[in-house]
Each structure stands twice: as C-alpha cells, then as structure tokens.
Amino acid sequence: MRSNVIIQKEKKQVIKICNSPKMFNKELYIYQKKLPFTPRLLDHDGKITLMLEYIEGIAIGDLAQPDFAHIAQIYTELHLLENKQGKCICHVDNNPKNYLYANNKYYLLDFSDWEYKQPETDLIHFLLFWASIYNKVKFKLAFKQLMNSYMKKAAINPLEWELLIPELIERFDSRRNKFGKRETNPDIIINRETLKNIY
Ligand SMILES: Nc1ncnc2c1ncn2[C@@H]1O[C@H](COP(=O)(O)OP(=O)(O)OP(=O)(O)O)[C@@H](O)[C@H]1O
Ligand SMILES: [Mg+2]
To answer: What predicted TM-score, i.e. pTM, was given to this entire model?
Structure first.
C-alpha cells in the first residue's frame, strides 16, 4: 500500500489519501474523465485526497474465469482516449488486485502510476501477472481471448511487442523481488515463451 485507503462500505464510498500531490493529480486526471469502467469520483480536496464510489466487487485474480475479452475492450477504450505520438494512456499498475468484477462489469482502480506509453506495455504487463498464475493451457487461452478482442478495435505493433517484452519482464521480476514474491508456477517459462509469440 502506497496510499491510505479507507473503505466505508456502509456509505458506499472509499477515501484514498495519496502519497503525493503528483499521485493525486494522476488519479484525478483519469477519474475526471468519468469513464464507464472506473469508480465514480464523489469528491476531492484538490490536494491529496479523493473520495470514490465503493465498488462491491471481486478482484479478478479471485475469479475462476475472468472474461479476458471484456477486459481487452476496456483496454481498447482507455488506449483510444488520447494519442501522443503513438503513446496512449496506459494503466501501468496492471496487478489483478486493481481490477474488480461487479454486476457483470469490470472496473479498473488505482491510476496513481498511469503514463503515456505504447499500448503494448499495458497488455504485456497485464499478461505477465497471468503468466505467473496460470498453467500453460489456461494462459494460452487467456492470451488469445485478450488479444483477439483487443485487436478488433485497436492495433498492436508486433515489432514493438517483441522489443518491449524483455524490459517489461525485467521490471516485473525486479518488482516481485522487491516485494519478496517468489515465482512458484512451473509453467512460467513456457507461458513467457507463449507471450513472445504475437504473430
Ligand atoms: N473504489 C473502490 N471500490 C472498492 N474497492 C476499492 C476501491 N478503491 C480501492 N479499493 C480496494 O483497496 C485496494 C487498494 O486501493 P488502491 O489500489 O487504489 O491503493 P494503493 O495504495 O495504490 O494500493 P496498492 O499499492 O496495493 O496497489 C484495492 O486493491 C481494492 O481492493
Ligand atoms: Mg492498487
């Protein structure tokens, strides 16, 4: 936890006290867009505190079968919002904890790390989490569902994909090490090989 999050279920609201004005401004920028896949912004203090709608949902890591095609459509929508020389708004903190499922919908939370990046960054980084969780069969299917659905409305650059993978794996592993997370999935290597094969 890099911020202080106070969940007030009975009031159906969440208070997020950010660590810095920069983090606050990043979150505010996204929540002010009133996107259909983020909690509603109820209030803020203009400095470091946001009040958000409470989403009574399940983190997608706890679902038996998340709908990756549906999640891909959210990425498409997010990525098509703005374009700065080939870069778009990327969520960046693609940990499945930041994705909730509630009432047949998926929600994205935690925009304190978003950045203008190549869209491939979000997809690869999101998939790296599942490569660490799923066996090779489930991973292949999730990968296919996500990519097929994403590419219905937005483009992926295969060369960019290939070039970004090594640095994203390195960043993923160094963050996992930092937080003391050990990789225990025997299929992780094969899953990462699958991930490289975008063609
Ligand atoms: N609007 C919301 N509705 C429901 N749950 C929420 C909401 N906002 C935050 N949470 C819960 O609180 C957790 C932490 O919130 P958030 O990710 O925004 O804070 P954080 O400090 O950046 O946390 P972390 O460093 O763990 O990512 C979320 O993973 C989610 O379980
Ligand atoms: Mg979070």
So the answer is: 0.97
